[in-house]
Amino acid sequence: QVQLVEPGGGVVQPGGPLRPPCLASVLALSTKAIGWLRQASGNDREGVSCINSGATNTNYADAVKGRFTINRDNAKNTAYLQMNSLKPEDTAVYYCAVRWYRLCSNNSADYDYWGQGTQVTVSS
Length: 124
Prior knowledge:
This protein is 0% helix and 44% strand.
């Protein structure tokens, strides 16, 4: 049974950091790509970042390039999204997702399993 949990959301001031983990109970996670996607109120879900199975390739949405970093620890079945220099427009529910394939994608339709999401609010 596949389970993804994102326990690390919260409220942070503009300019601050946050590093939510994605805890994955997934068979052979090391063979699958992991993505972070977000959905702000009233908006469609959008891809933020993803990392391929071997952690040799990552990609980022233009809005977060240079501020966010994705990484994974396959031995711990965990992925992280290091978010720096947060802005109010980063406020959204952030979802961790697993793609049943090794290559990366920022298209939400390409993901097979999803966590329940964690709220990130950037506000002073």
